[in-house]
TrEMBL record, chain A:
Its main location: membrane. It is a multi-pass membrane protein. This is Carbohydrate ABC transporter permease. One of its GO terms (biological process) is transmembrane transport. PANTHER family: ABC TRANSPORTER PERMEASE PROTEIN MG189-RELATED-RELATED, POLYGALACTURONAN_RHAMNOGALACTURONAN TRANSPORT SYSTEM PERMEASE PROTEIN YTCP.
From TrEMBL, chain B:
This is ABC transporter permease subunit. It comes from the Bacteria. One of its GO terms (biological process) is transmembrane transport. Pfam families: BPD_transp_1. It comes from Diplocloster agilis.
Length: 295, 316
């Protein structure tokens, strides 16, 4: 409401006060666990294991982060996850555009049938064991390929992209560029993609988040520790409490350091997405919504 | 994903396929790779569903194994876990459906009503954040916070003079932990669709209401809320189509020997039958998966039909 001149009645003042108070409480509820984790990660092992941390770091220390970066598994996992995320997201974007652009063209024969074949798999799939058997027959098990080939296109994202192209890339544009002697390949790289920056940014974020956080594929298909992504190591350390690779100096400090390591690890593993997200956030209104809601 | 049902399509002049193909052949070339991928990775596994009706042996392969009809389904229906996994799945999903539904709506209305635009934007951006946390990290946060030894929740209980409790070991707590951690993670993200709907509210409605002396609260109640009601009902209906489709990861990661009574759901049970028992049974695990997929399919189609009838909006 841009009605600055209109006097706000006292009842409305109470409403605005309660409304903002509610937002503040919601913010605290959502943020408190995150702040608690960050503060704990900068505290001393002793302060963490005796539960002294409430809001701010107690006995500021970087021990936790030191332990994280000395852990071989974590570094391997981090490197692997970066690789899977970059390679996987690139494959995702290329494949999604290759599928979505042609199927967005209303004059393409067979478009309805092929689109149906894509969307049908969103509501019915072979399931866990048949997928496992297929990947096993294709000799994909315990290879890096299994981390991004079977998930090359997300059908939901494909639909968003297709709707976006339908609504934002007029067919007349192609006809015009054809007159200039432009073929489809050049048309897509030179005209369609630059027009679709916002949706590409949003899709890249969606895909990257999935790869960064992906756990199940690796858990099911990978057996070599050297290929494990970060999430597998995270589960071992955070949930199964295995800290055997650590090198704690004293027995008493061991538990404290193990507790502290968990908090630092949570921060280290989650920071990249939190940093990238605000840069993509501005595209959400433009990209995600025009793609999702077809007028 | 929400498609309005099409109004009259424009009639195109029929074009011979040959001419159309000549003009569009490059598009078909572009489609080759994605369609090959689709057939291999999405339709390939459907062929493997055959083993739900067979006694699968690795040495004999999918085709070579013996047909057994519906014996694998029978085995599942008579398994002592059958009733339990169905009940657990439905408990968690219905609880989640009902409990998590109102929060994004209330938050979106509040975000839309605040006069402090900067503050609103900050709250909006910050409440999205938990959505980016991985399931593994979310589950570990839950376990850490609820830990009876050093968890913050038990520290608070101790502070107020109560006795600490091992929440993760209590089967009765599992649905609560599952659902409320989910609300914490995705409430902020869930506001996106409602904020989009609210941005489409006609300003003149508000102006007219203000002239009539409506308070801000009345305007939220009778204008904003009414305007997002269709979106809300669609979201509810679509979510209802997913009630048998609770994902594997979170339940599996929060599961332990002590809470298994309520945490074993269809997807974790399928995994356990297929991979994690002494005598793994691929055929029965496939049968369970197929049973679940068929129910999902029926649910989604039904829900889609209802939504189409009520509001002209559908998924397909």
């Amino acid at each position: 409401m841009k009605a600055k001149k209109i006097n706000v009645s006292s009842r409305d003042k109470i409403f605005y006060f309660i409304n903002d108070l509610f937002l503040l409480i919601a913010l605290i509820v959502v943020l408190y666990p995150i702040i608690y984790i960050i503060s704990s990660s900068f505290s001393s092992p002793n302060a963490v294991s005796t539960g002294k941390v409430v809001l701010f770091p107690v006995d500021f220390s970087l021990e936790g982060y030191k332990a994280v970066f000395q852990h071989d598994g974590i570094l391997t996992g981090y490197a692997n996850t970066i690789f899977y995320t970059l390679a996987g997201t690139s494959v995702n974007l290329i494949m999604t555009v290759l599928a979505a652009y042609p199927l967005s063209r209303k004059d393409l024969k067979g478009r309805k049938v092929i689109t149906f074949l894509f969307t049908f798999t969103m509501i019915f799939s072979g399931g866990l064991i048949p997928s496992y058997l297929l990947n096993s027959n294709l000799s994909l098990i315990n290879t890096r390929w299994v981390m991004f080939l079977p998930t090359a296109i997300n059908i939901f994202n494909f639909t968003i992209a297709k709707n976006f192209f339908e609504n934002n890339v007029p067919e007349e544009l192609y006809e015009a560029s054809q007159l200039d002697g432009c073929n489809y390949f050049r048309f897509i790289t030179g005209v369609v993609l630059p027009l679709s920056k916002s949706i590409l940014a949003v899709l890249a974020l969606y895909y990257a988040v999935v790869h960064w956080n992906s756990y199940f594929e690796a858990f099911l298909y990978l057996t070599d520790e050297s290929k494990f992504p970060l999430q597998i190591f995270l589960r071992e350390i955070l949930i199964l409490n295995s800290t055997e690779n650590m090198d704690p100096s004293a027995l008493a400090a061991r538990q404290g350091l193990a507790d502290l390591l968990k908090y630092s690890l949570i921060v280290v593993s989650s920071v990249p997405l939190m940093v990238v997200y605000p840069f993509v956030a501005k595209h959400f209104n433009k990209g995600a919504l025009t793609g999702a809601v077809k007028g | 994903m929400i498609n309005k049902t099409k109004t009259l399509p424009l009639k195109r002049v029929k074009e011979p396929f040959k001419k159309n193909f000549k003009r569009n052949y490059q598009l078909y070339i572009l489609l080759l790779l994605p369609v090959a991928w689709l057939l291999l990775f999405k339709y390939g596994p459907m062929y493997g569903l055959l083993i739900a009706f067979k006694d699968y042996e690795i040495s004999k392969g999918i085709l070579g194994s013996d047909w057994v009809g519906f014996a694998n389904f029978d085995k599942f229906f008579h398994n002592y876990m059958f009733g339990k996994v169905i009940r657990n799945t439905l408990t968690v999903s219905f609880y989640q459906l009902i409990a998590s539904f109102p929060f994004p709506i209330i938050l979106a209305l509040a975000l839309n009503s605040t006069r402090k635009k900067k503050f609103g934007k900050t709250v909006q951006t910050l409440t999205y954040m938990p959505y980016f946390i991985s399931v593994v990290v979310l589950c570990s946060i839950v376990i850490q916070f609820l830990s009876p030894r050093m968890g913050i929740i038990n520290e608070m209980i101790r502070f107020f003079g109560g006795t600490p409790k091992d929440f993760m070991a209590d089967p009765n707590m599992f649905p609560h932990i599952y659902v409320w951690s989910g609300i914490w993670q995705s409430c902020g993200w869930g506001t996106i669709v409602y904020l989009a709907a609210l941005s489409g509210v006609d300003e003149s409605l508000h102006e007219a209401a203000m002239i009539d002396g409506a308070t801000r609260f009345q305007r939220v109640r009778y204008i904003d809320f009414r305007c997002i009601l269709p979106t809300a009902s669609i979201m509810l209906i679509l979510n209802a189509g997913q009630i048998m489709n609770i994902g594997f990861e979170k339940a599996f990661l929060l599961q332990n020997q002590l809470n298994k009574d309520t945490s074993e759901i269809i997807s974790t049970f399928t995994y356990n039958v297929g991979f994690a028992t002494a005598v793994t049974d691929f055929s029965m695990a496939t049968a369970i998966g197929l049973f679940n997929s068929v129910i999902n399919l029926i649910l989604i189609l039904t829900v889609n039909k209802i939504s189409k009838k009520l509001s002209d909006t559908s998924l397909f």
